[in-house]
Write a structure and sequence with these properties.
The chain has 4 helices and 6 strands. The protein is an alpha+beta fold and about 140 residues long. The protein has a domain of about 100 residues. A 6-stranded antiparallel sheet has the order 1-2-3-4-6-5. Strand 2 and strand 3 form a beta hairpin. Helix 1 crosses helix 2.
């Protein structure tokens, strides 16, 4: 993944934003989209475009990565692709989360994928060895392999 300048806002995106925000002002919607793009970091490879929204230092402990294919098609085998993109941008040590909301709250209209990447070690995952040790301890088998 290489870092790029924010992409230009398209007419289609402005129209979509106007509908989503229930706005009748094209200029206002376009200005908001341009401002949002300037406040993010952007990355790309041959197939994907990634927008990283950095949160305020006093805000949530996550950064959001919004990922889509350049041709706007679904990402096939998306777990492997998102894992690679997460590691390329945030590092192999980073932990990221993909959220699956209640059915009534699902929004799935744009072939856009979201990862929330932890900015602290509070939610650090266990290594396989540590997980095995903890499972053994739970079963009263600590020290037995």
């Amino acid at each position: 993944m290489k870092r790029i300048a924010p992409p230009e806002v398209t007419e289609e995106e402005v129209d979509s934003a106007m509908a989503m925000w229930d706005s009748s002002s094209y200029a206002y919607a376009e200005a908001l989209l341009v401002q949002q793009r300037q406040e993010c970091l952007w990355f790309e490879d041959d197939e994907h475009l990634v927008q990283v929204r950095w949160t305020d230092k006093n805000g949530p402990i996550y950064n959001q990565a919004v990922i889509r294919r350049k041709d706007k098609e679904p990402i096939k085998d998306h777990w492997k692709v998102l894992q690679r993109i997460k590691s390329d941008i945030f590092g192999h040590w980073a932990t990221a989360y993909e959220v699956y909301p209640p059915d009534a709250e699902v929004v799935d209209t744009a072939n856009t994928y979201h990862l929330w990447v932890s900015r602290c070690k509070l939610f650090e995952t266990y290594s396989k060895a540590e997980a095995k040790r903890l499972r053994g301890k739970e079963k009263g088998m600590e020290g037995q392999d």
